[in-house]
Write a structure and sequence with these properties.
binds magnesium ion, aromatic hydrocarbons catabolism, binds [(2S)-5-oxo-2,5-dihydrofuran-2-yl]acetic acid, Muconate cycloisomerase family protein, Mandel_Rmase/mucon_lact_enz_CS, 39% helix
């Protein structure tokens, strides 16, 4: 049987409404923009992927528009005619012709895996070596900007058994105000919930010394990216003195960043994100570096919709230990989906499908309605 080749690769920008504004230190999301990848192969199989970021260029080096432009002008033409099932060859070619661009590459790697899974009748997790669990515990982010509203939201999530881990987005307000907000939420939820914070690099080291101390003393489990990714010395010092563990997020923009952070002892937990490593296979290389260095793992998100969320989930279910669980709640922040069957969240967990590929089908009508023209 002649092997299938890649015939075309389309990138589609999709704008979807969110259930409420989502306040991060650097940006307040009023909606979310996805970049959906459709990879068509000569055997009639289509693979889908997603390359999504947060807040245009506010979070990372790629925006939805630059992702689409770089795929259309550079990455897609390089793939046409290549063997669709040889994911190593395809991704090596992309790495040769394009530096960085991990968000764009992540959507493409996901689409290649989805297509190959459908071709072989296997879920993506099995292409990645096999799953060791079927579901993942999922944290929820409290980011309404209002303490009372956040507490009510958390209590509701506990009651309906959807989440019992909460991440609070802080850093935009004065330090003392943020600390009061976090401590009030932890006090209200008590031992029923794990409460963590994400500062998104907004403190300087002097603020972080006090911030980490107060949060650690008040039962906050985990502190994500308290200071700038550029201040490596500060990250090393905080990792040594903070009473609560420090997690690296923005500090990891590539697998090589993960290696250098591990070598320097700059964090004791890594947030794994397919978008920031270049795909579900690439993120597992960062996981392996962390495992070798004794660094704990957390399954992160760029607030992708169903496609990017399940591409992440298929990678995360293959991991030996995910000490800090995941935050794969992106689809739950959206009021609309562009797939026919939404991912299943039940009993604090995301349940990962065992059907071929990612286990998703695009809903053509909704895709047509929400795509940007
Ligand atoms: C981030 O900085 O981790 C993940 C969850 C959330 O609410 O925002 C993201 C991005
Ligand atoms: Mg983060």
């Amino acid at each position: 049987m002649p092997s299938a080749v890649i015939e075309s690769l389309e990138s589609i920008i999709v704008d979807l409404p969110t259930i409420r504004p989502h306040k991060l230190a650097m940006h307040t999301m009023q909606n979310q923009t996805l970049v959906i990848i459709r990879l068509r192969c000569s055997d009639g199989i289509e693979g889908i992927g997603e390359s999504t970021t947060i807040g245009g260029l506010a979070y990372g080096n790629e925006s939805p528009e630059s992702i689409k432009q770089n795929i259309d002008s550079h990455l897609a033409p390089a793939l046409i005619g290549l063997e669709a099932g040889n994911i190593n060859a395809a991704m090596q070619k992309l790495d040769k012709i394009a530096k960085g661009n991990t968000f764009a590459k992540s959507g493409i790697e996901s689409a290649l895996l989805d297509a190959q899974g459908k071709r072989l009748g296997l879920p993506v997790s099995e292409l990645l070596g096999g799953r060791v669990r079927d579901s993942l515990e999922v944290a929820w982010t409290l980011a309404s900007g209002d303490t009372a509203r956040d507490i009510a939201e958390a209590e509701h999530m506990l009651e309906i058994r959807r989440h019992r881990i909460f991440k609070l987005k802080i850093g935009a307000n004065p330090l003392e105000q943020d600390l009061k907000h976090v401590v009030a939420i932890k006090k209200a939820l008590g031992d029923h919930a794990s409460v963590r914070v994400d500062v998104n690099q907004y403190w300087d080291e002097s603020q972080a010394i006090r911030g980490c101390q107060v949060l650690g003393e008040n039962g906050i489990d985990l502190i994500e990216q308290p200071i700038s990714r550029i201040n490596r010395g500060g990250q090393i010092r905080l990792n040594q003195r903070s009473p609560a563990p420090i997690m690296a997020d923005e500090s990891i923009e590539s697998v090589e960043d993960a290696f250098s952070l591990a070598a320097d002892g700059a964090a004791s937990v890594f947030a794994l994100k397919i978008a920031k490593n270049g795909g579900p296979r690439a993120v597992l290389r960062t996981a392996q570096i962390a495992e070798a260095a004794g660094i704990a793992l957390y399954g992160g998100t760029m607030l992708e919709g169903a496609v990017g969320t399940l591409a992440s989930a298929h990678a995360f279910v293959t991991l030996n230990r995910l000490t800090w669980h995941t935050e794969l709640f992106g689809p739950l922040l959206l009021t609309e989906e562009i797939v026919t069957e939404a991912p299943v969240y039940r009993d604090f967990q995301l349940h990962v499908p065992r059907t071929p590929g990612l286990g998703l089908t695009l809903d053509e009508e909704r895709l047509a309605r929400f795509r940007r023209h």
